[in-house]
């Protein structure tokens, strides 16, 4: 039992990263991770010994996220909280890479949650298309379509932001 708990605890950084990619609010993301861990520990017998808990945990988290989004949609509340100017960047960027990274993160947050989840699962978390489709509960073709559309949407958003960055406003 302790080996299972240790394996689950080792996945917390990945769970946190995925939760933060789904939700803009750190506190909400941490709550999602906590809910996921609670559910996993209660249902520890559902996880098969010898297998990595990663897919199992990501499936739990995704289902919790979908439930949360449905609840928010029923209540009519905003699903994503906009970043405040101070949250976007705590210190001025000294390097071009920092600005580019921030633009990528902002663009990723701007695309739809379904496309963002698909992209994060495959491009960042390293799941195969089949694994990601299984975790998200969609057919592989749907997952590939979401990834393709998400990438296209990201390119458009990033092209826009690079154009805006290259235009300088001069005040007289």
From TrEMBL:
Any Pfam family matching the protein: PhyR_sigma2
Domain of life of the source: Bacteria
Cited Gene3D superfamilies: 1.10.1740.10, Winged helix-like DNA-binding domain superfamily/Winged helix DNA-binding domain
Domain RNA polymerase sigma factor 70 region 4 type: 102-154
Record domain PhyR sigma2: where: 8-62
NCBIfam families the UniProt entry points to: sigma70-ECF
CDD domains in the cross-refs: Sigma70_r4
Keyword set, alphabetical order: Sigma factor, Transcription, Transcription regulation
Protein name per its UniProtKB record: RNA polymerase sigma factor
PANTHER family cross-referenced by the UniProt entry: RNA POLYMERASE ECF-TYPE SIGMA FACTO, RNA POLYMERASE SIGMA FACTOR RFAY-RELATED
Family, as annotated: Belongs to the sigma-70 factor family. ECF subfamily.
Organism: Mesorhizobium captivum
Keyword Ribonucleoprotein recorded: no
């Amino acid at each position: 039992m302790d080996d299972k708990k240790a394996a689950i605890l080792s996945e917390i950084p990945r769970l946190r990263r995925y939760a933060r990619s789904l939700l803009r609010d750190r506190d909400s993301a941490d709550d999602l991770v906590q809910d996921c861990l609670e559910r996993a520990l209660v249902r520890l017998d559902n996880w098969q010994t010898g297998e990595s808990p990663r897919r199992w945990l990501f499936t739990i988290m995704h289902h919790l996220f979908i439930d949360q989004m449905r609840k928010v949609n029923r209540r009519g509340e905003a699903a994503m909280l906009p970043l405040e100017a101070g949250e976007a960047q705590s210190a001025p960027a000294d390097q071009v890479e920092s600005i580019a990274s921030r633009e990528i993160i902002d663009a990723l947050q701007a695309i739809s949650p379904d496309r963002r989840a698909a992209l994060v699962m495959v491009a960042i978390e390293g799941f195969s298309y089949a694994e990601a489709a299984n975790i998200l509960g969609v057919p592989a073709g749907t997952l590939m379509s979401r990834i393709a559309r998400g990438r296209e949407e990201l390119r458009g958003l990033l092209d826009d932001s690079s154009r805006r960055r290259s235009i300088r406003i001069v005040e007289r």
